[in-house]
Amino acid sequence: MKPLAEIGQPLAQVDTPALIVDLDAFETNLKTMADMIAGGPAKLRGHSKTHKSPVIGLKQMELGAVGVCCQKVGEAEAMVEGGVDNVLVSNQVAGASKLDRLADLNRRAFVPFCVDHVQGVAQASQAAKRAGVTMDALVEIDVGGGRCGVQPGQAAVDLARIVDAADGLRFGGLQAYHGSVQHVRDHAERHAHAQEAVDKARMTVEALSAEGFTCDIVGGAGTGTFQTEAASGIYNELQAGSYVFMDTDYALNLGADGEQAGQFQYALFVQTSVMSMPVPERVVLDAGHKTCAIDSGPPQPFGLPGAVTGSLSDEHAVLDVTEVNNRPGWGDHVLLIPGHCDPTVNLHDHYICVRSLHTPGAVVEDIWPVAARGALN
Amino acid sequence: MKPLAEIGQPLAQVDTPALIVDLDAFETNLKTMADMIAGGPAKLRGHSKTHKSPVIGLKQMELGAVGVCCQKVGEAEAMVEGGVDNVLVSNQVAGASKLDRLADLNRRAFVPFCVDHVQGVAQASQAAKRAGVTMDALVEIDVGGGRCGVQPGQAAVDLARIVDAADGLRFGGLQAYHGSVQHVRDHAERHAHAQEAVDKARMTVEALSAEGFTCDIVGGAGTGTFQTEAASGIYNELQAGSYVFMDTDYALNLGADGEQAGQFQYALFVQTSVMSMPVPERVVLDAGHKTCAIDSGPPQPFGLPGAVTGSLSDEHAVLDVTEVNNRPGWGDHVLLIPGHCDPTVNLHDHYICVRSLHTPGAVVEDIWPVAARGALN
Predict the structure, then answer these.
(1) Which of B313, B347, B348 is the closest to A179 by Cβ?
(2) Looking at the complex, does the CB of residue B228 fall below 8 Å from at least one CB of chain A?
(3) What is the pLDDT of residue B350?
(4) Spatial separation of the C-alpha atoms in residues A371 and A56, rounded to whole Å
(5) How confident is the model at residue A253 (pLDDT cuts 50, 70, 90)?
(6) How confident is the model at residue A105 (pLDDT cuts 50, 70, 90)?
(7) Average pLDDT over every residue of A234-256
(8) Rounded-to-integer distance, Cα B47 and Cα B237, Å
(9) Confidence band for B29, pLDDT divided at 50, 70 and 90
(10) Which residue in A has a C-alpha nearest to residue B119's C-alpha?
(11) For residues A287-306, b (16+ Cβ closer than 10 Å) or e, as one string?
């Protein structure tokens, strides 16, 4: 699809709804993360399921990231196509056609992936043999999330042995991500759970080591907990993604001071227009949940203190502006902060990148495709 | 994006996740609706925000629909491009660039739209004059949903008068859709609310008539209530959309008998694969809420009695299969019934259309683009 905007266009003239990147906040977030982990043994492997953009992946790598990770082979293809040469599929891959594509990618870049089942190992081995490549497979362990992954310890060693014996595969290390804990609101509780994940990863690394297996990669962590994994001495790769943009859900964890989101800043917005204002207390924006994902709560208006997000339907967001002093008028633009950045990005085809976003003269500085938009396979 | 499948390919070989149309159920749904309203004064104007496909819009018209409706100018463009010559934008349109596109479309097809504010009328009038076209504008009234629309009665007459006086615009009728009531679970309560909408529409049509305004279109209704509006003698167009596919949310309203959805059948599925089964009671599917929208509840597995959908993350769905007798194995395919068809369709680029879906030899009969996928503007 054609971008909604042109470079140099005033933001005020950009059609709505549009996915907007605040370049200043975005660059600050990238730098903040790089600074926070600088000098430690754990490097960033930014999660590209958040941004789906090799442009952003390469910016992360310029600041020290070893590469990116992603959840889908289609995302890995978009990353490699865009010049990222080190892409971990931090997920299981099931199905011969996807594994053939993964094997093919491994001719062009380093694209390891995860296994947690003997059949996954067998199917991947066949694909590697068909392609004549060797692929690194990480064993995923369940460090508390109750989703994928074998149990820590002996089960991981057993699966590593199966990987090691499989033609075309090489044991590449451990995937030890605790997803659900990222969203625990209380700081101490969140990091206590992350420490449990660290303990399970350590125990498993030691069990593997005792059997002669070295983990090139021990990966996990997210925006909510990465400091704990970074300090562990066990994890050497951190898979934080959301820090680049932030969202209202992570702001509830990491501290939201007014319209800042604690250590990271809000850098992603959906620019909307007031399309209806049938009564003075209600404005209706031209963006619903087909534009702004609501799995982690509704979007929040930026710069409208007192406004309350009401119902969201497919293409409408209702705001109660009863308590708002300077109410927007018909056709005025309103910026929304997404509840969850990752699935919101996936609803759009382009990032409209703006510097000095919250100033009247803001113009479009760059446009980046959401290259892996809809890469579900 | 390239389709995931090829015509003639066995469904069992189609990569996952994939958006699947059960052609038999789909065609039955189209016929059922056509039969249910046949002979009445109200014709179907199927809502293309559900399917985003001119192929499907044309099939609805072959069975008697006057055209389609949609929510966005971008959707209207996709419909006209695909050969649909009568497309109501059943929504307000705010912004000069969108209104210019709308005016341009009106050179090629009949593309009326809605207004509920004097500034919307003024901006549309300017666009029509720039393009040298006349556009039909429907006045939207709030029949109880509390979203867009002026109040029924005099306020609608006042706005109709403003439309009538605006260069390049013609008063086209009333938009009187009650969205939230579609999802009221109880049949009697739902239709009682729909009757209230009918009463407000009737009162407004009469007030308009008393002032000399004729409504070419009186449109509204959805899959949950269309029988009431069809029987009203006031509505002449029914904007039902979801009936073509059904989903688990509408099944809760319209009656779900086992894996049938009452009068309409489940015709839309997401085919997934078991990508992880770390413990016998849990399988993890390769489709999360980036694949299957969850605004109206999680998807439900088809043909797995006893399975319970647990957490959905971006790219994973966890099923508890404790109570399932024939549990799927690693790599096996599982069909999910979406919670809400409209936003689920918007996450995909193609429909993979299959006949005799629930038989072992099912093959891909057709592939339709989701032409208006991501048409947010």
Answers:
(1) B313
(2) no
(3) 98
(4) 11
(5) confident
(6) very high
(7) 91
(8) 11
(9) very high
(10) A330
(11) bbbbbbbbbbebbbbbebee
Q: What is the torsional sign of CA A96, A97, A99, A104?
A: positive
Beta partners for residue A257, in sequence order: A260
> How does the average pLDDT of chain A come out, rounded?
96
**Per-residue tokens: A104:** 């093919």
Residue B259, pLDDT > 60, answer no
What is each CA distance from A347 to A17, A290, A317, in whole angstroms? 11, 7, 16
Task: Return the ∠ at Cα A210 (arms to A208 and A211), rounded to 5°.
Answer: 65
- The answer, for B155 touching chain A at a CB cutoff of 8 Å, is no
Three-state secondary structure call for residue B264: strand
Report whether B230 contacts B238 (CB < 8 A). yes
Report the DSSP pairing between strands A317-320 and A333-337: unpaired
Q: What is the mean pLDDT of residues A340-361?
A: 97
Q: Do B346 and A278 touch (CB under 8 A)?
A: no
CB B269 within 8 A of CB B336: yes
Asked if omega into A10 is within 30° of 0 (cis), the reply is no
- φ, ψ of residue B44 to 5 degrees: the values are -75, 140
- For residue A294, give the nearest of B97, B119, B295 by CB distance: B295
Structural domains in chain B plus CATH codes:
11-19+255-369 (2.40.37.20), 23-245 (3.20.20.10)
Spatial CA neighbour of B276 closest among A45, A134, A90, A284: A90
